[in-house]
Amino acid sequence: MKTRLSTLLSGIFFFSTVAVNAQEKQLFNVLSIPNGAYIVSAPESQFSVEETSNQIGNWTKEAIIDGTSYKGWNSSEEAKFPLVFVFELSEECVIEKFGFNNECEQEYKGICAKNLIVEVSSESADAGYTTVLEPVLEEYADTKYFDIEPVKARWVRVSILSNYGNKTNTELMEIEALGSYASEEVKAINLTGDWTSTWGTVSIRQNGASIKGCYSFRNGKISNAGFDRRIVSFKWDETRKDGKTESGQAVLVVNEDGSRLNGIWSFGDNLKKYGIWTFKRKAGVDVPTQCYQVDSAALESDRLRRELELNGKLTMYGINFETGSATLKAESYPVLNEIVGLMKDFPTIKINVVGHTDSQGAHDLNVRLSTNRAESVKNYLIEKGIEANRLQAFGKGPDVPVADNSTQLGRAANRRVEFVLNKD
To answer: What is the Cα–Cα distance from 31 to 21, expressed in whole angstroms?
Structure first.
């Protein structure tokens, strides 16, 4: 199949608000990979994504929930109806709309999906399904949304029953489910232990909102990491055979039962071009088997110093605040104490504390909030013995994003505190 030239975006860029108990809630595409959705099973596809790829390819199963409509899914020639997808949401959500983009390739007659059945379940990936929608999709149509009665769901099953007559292949560009979290309450989850992933065993140690870890491939390291709600943001580093280092960012969401982390990763600090990274917890292994001996405080300070001098800044996650305020959460202290150790071990270093927010809410309020949060971090460091003349605080609000603000994982990556080297 030829790659489509259309660059229409859908799904993750659709937002609407509905009144609930006199408050406004925002719907988002809970059924997209950048929002933490996971493909449990899918029909045979024309192509597959290399597990180590840093981007989602066209005509793969992943492309049907990648949040765009310029990449899509195409069945293999051997696939037979019904063509069944099962998706797991990161947690139970209330779904209010489904959307489908059917802008398939017009040179392949009859290839567009036609009759579908959409079912949801909160019981398991295999049972408890209720039919909520039986749409007939318009041929070659861009994204169309179908309202449903709001329904709680953790799993979504979409069955394609027919197409418009093509005897060999079926195409569908994108599936969306617009909804919101069923509950804002999140039970405590400890990620400490071993996990399997594409890059071998991953060992994680969690202390409050601070995450440390490593993985088998190229002596991979997880650092500058933090846990906020269900989302883990971190920097990864690997050492190639030639001794050179590769690094990048990752943002993963842990599912409701704490058995899987699923999300996106990138080279460098630009998460707008991403691949998929999934960790699955090793049952019964709640003590990490790798990198178990955590670096001493002195070694950690030296690592942070080298990163600060090399890049001019440290991007740190796990510095969390009460919602809409500049009040630090106690879970943030382990991360902040690493910065305290850095500045005490290297007393000539001066730092600008820079706060960043996502783009939700008024711009001026976000700038003010990020400034106040930077001040809170500065004050914490001063209380721990760092001289005030070594610190300045600034807020950038949403003006310097590193990821897409239209996704949950992107917004989590954009909410960060940076410690910028002050050379004055």
So the answer is: 25
